[in-house]
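User: I'm curious whether this sequence folds into something compact or stays loose and floppy. Could you predict its structure so I can see for myself?
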Amino acid sequence: MKRSGLVWQNNGCILWKTTMRNKITISILLNLTLLALNQGLVLAQSNTNSSPVGRIMTINGEVLLQRQGQSKPQRPSEYTDLNPGDLLEVKPGATATIFCYANRQQPRVPEGVSGVNNLCPPNSQPLVTPTGPIGPSRSPDSSIPDIISPRRTALRNINPILRWYPVLGATRYTVRVLGTGGVDWTQDVSDTQIAYSGNPPLQLGGIYSITVQANNSESTAREVFSLLNSEDVNQVETDIEQISNQNLSEEAKILILVDDVYLKNNLIAEAIAQLETLVTQGSKTAAIYQTLGELYAQVGLIDLAKERYLQALELTKTANDIEGQAVAQASLGIVYEAMGNLPEAIRWLNQAKTGYESLGDEQQVRNLEEQLQKLQTQLQE
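Assistant: Here's the prediction. I'll summarize afterward.
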């Protein structure tokens, strides 16, 4: 669907046709793209009915997790989310510690059965869960240099790295940043990334658009990003310092920062960068890859989401984490549905349903059955 020279993609990405460049003002463009950004954030904040109150940090020996709404206990992995109403059973000789978001404490779970409600206080506000639009797959021969980062995100850094997909046959790209404070910065580069170094500098609290155009294409990719205001930056830095000073592994610190700091402030790009650092270091923790998949889906980078979900699935299989497998399989079902591959989406959702059936999770089974019925109907049309 086209509106005033803007091409709205299913994934929320906005393309600018160069032939219409003079017909819409920059301020209107920024407002439209900011609206798209805000809609995605509202979606992310609305899915808080079962917002986690903590995560399992360490497990030694036999520990069981009984979810509220599941009839059968499971063997959880480290960094498994804990929801209100869950029960933890620590067998004799075993140990487990958890992290509670509300007070940022790390209680040791006593032997026997303990209610999560008795271990972690409720959150003052629900955690933000990435559940925004995911959009279609990107074609390898696309003429659009889709922007990877910053993309529908807030930032703290006034000199961000701007990154985009390469376009087949392109030798140069024109990058432009426009926005608050009269910023209008253009650079021609041969690489697929560049650090912003314009004058005037980006301002805290500002809103900006970035466009990238390949020299062999008439279409331009456009995204929007914002910078936190100085008060929010100071609070984020205080929160980061408090969590970083805790006696936690590097993986645990980053996962908690993502849950408790980055997503609350829409710092999606920073969350992705921190998690990708762990991937580069060879992390074998499924939660890292699952979270990355969710974040990539949130900003419409569906191919990257699929890659990380597949890695999460393999790691949950290695750990014999049935719930983790079901979550990854359901996520892959959503990805393939967005790609338009309904048979593959059905296959993954059926696998997820089998996993939830083995856990006795009737609500999740019903949800998946409804989704499967919808896809089967679409497939027959």
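Summary: DSSP finds ten helices and 17 strands in the chain. Residues 26-46 form the longest helix (21 residues).
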